[in-house]
Amino acid sequence: MTGEKCSHHVLQDAVQECKICGKPICKDCLEIYNMENETYRNEPFCYDCIGELVKENTANEMKFRKKVTTERVMALLMSVVLMFVGSALLRDERGEGVPLLIIILGAVLLGGCIAVMPEIIKAFKAGDVKKGLACMFGAYIFMARTRRRQLEQCVEIATSDSFTISRIRNYYAYTQFMEKNKDADLAKLTAPGGRLNDNQYAKDVLEKGEAAARGEMRRNVIQIAENNENGKNLGEIKVK
Question: Is 216 part of any domain?
Fold first, then answer.
């Protein structure tokens, strides 16, 4: 990295390259944007690629929400279709044959089973018989209970990512400004009308100190990595 400057802090020497895009990054970026989770183990990211990771998190959330909607629509549609088919095949013109209540219950249960069929197949292929049977015979319970929890997790991930990306932008703006204005009065900059008045990271540095603000920023970045890992597994039905 000799002679190269950081792609985001042009006055700082680069010490590493971003794991994703290969852009040179400085020691400061390396300390803040290092990823730590099951996928990325102490691997350097840059400011831009952190933003891309958040976009990936959002895409995972949207994909899961679409999956939940599809399951619910499929369960309803198949239940209705099976009711009509069952009534036509199992009851005669006089309404005799298999009781209508049995047909309705069977159609509803089978419709739910069809809706989560991909999960059932996946469970049996993985050798998880308990999970497969639970999904098969308790499809609606798992669609309601487990999917509800996972949808709540979607909201938590989105809220966490939104908060963190806002802090990262603040941190980036702060470091960009202070790099060129090292002797600037932070109290004046964060006061009403100051250049960094709306910058929460700058205010945190003033109130808590540089080390505490950086530590909190680091925890926020790690949370994005954890959100990314959790987002990839959102569609899993887990049987306890």
Answer: no
Q: Are 163 and 219 in contact (CB under 8 A)?
A: no
C-alpha distances out from residue 190 to 174, 176, 213, Å: 11, 15, 15
Cβ neighbour number for residue 34 with a 10 Å cutoff:
20
pLDDT by residue (tens digit) across 76-125? 999 999 988 888 888 876 777 888 889 889 998 899 889 888 888 888 88
DSSP 80-149: HHHHHHHHHHHB-TTS-BS-HHHHHHHHHHHHHHHHTHHHHHHHHHTT-HHHHHHHHH-HHHHHHHHHHH
Residue with tokens 């308990």: 130
Predicted TM-score (pTM) of the model is 0.73
CA distances from 149 to 125, 130, 182 (A): 25, 20, 47
Phi, psi of 92, rounded to the nearest 5 degrees? -90, -175
Residue 180 lies in a domain: no
Range of the domain at 99: 63-148
Largest separation between any pair of C-alpha atoms in the chain = 93
Eight-state DSSP code of residue 38:
S
